[in-house]
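EI: anyone free to look at a 213-residue chain?
SC: sure, send it
EI:
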Amino acid sequence: TRYRSQAETQLPPTSSKSSPESQSELGIPDVDLFDMFQKHRGMLLRWLESDSNRRNEVMEAIVSIVAMTAMSSKDESIKKHRFWRSIDGRNCVGRFVPCLHERSAAEMAEAEAERELVRGQEVGEIEINMQLGTFSLSTSRLEGVDERISSFPDFKHLFGVEGSKVQCAAVRITKKRIWMRMVGRRHDLLLWKPDDTAMQIPFRRKYPESLSS
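SC: here you go
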């Protein structure tokens, strides 16, 4: 299942003539917003494709805004540095996903040569789709850090007071463990419950009192 997260900004309507139903949270009617995106989408995509460093910076900024992980100067050392590229496959240009390793010129040329011959497949957990203007997270919905985790001294020391506002996605939840992934950071959070299983002692022979331990 794929989930979407939208960053919303509450602004007053730009015109009193527009009905409340036609206004989005940005103060612009949805129809006008989508029309604007459609007109500039090609130009934006070419702008992003022309400079890989600029593309990486823009994509990481989008992740930070959506996940609410704005970095201060002291947090730059733990910022996840990734390389963003389009998914391989037909009709997938503009569907950007992050990679930990940058492709060489030969690898990029090979991928482009085979693009029309293969079907696009989802890669990783995050996708920023410039074709549709969506931010998708394939693992689960975004939520804040669990208070039981954010109250730990180690968490406060590493992420500061603002760390509790970082958005996370559940990777796996079991009876004794909660495994969360911090979006836009190189960190996973795990919360364990104590094991209350009674220890089984199969030995029934009495320990000789004459022997010392």
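EI: The helical segments are 30-49, 52-67, 105-113, 147-150, 153-159.
SC: 👍
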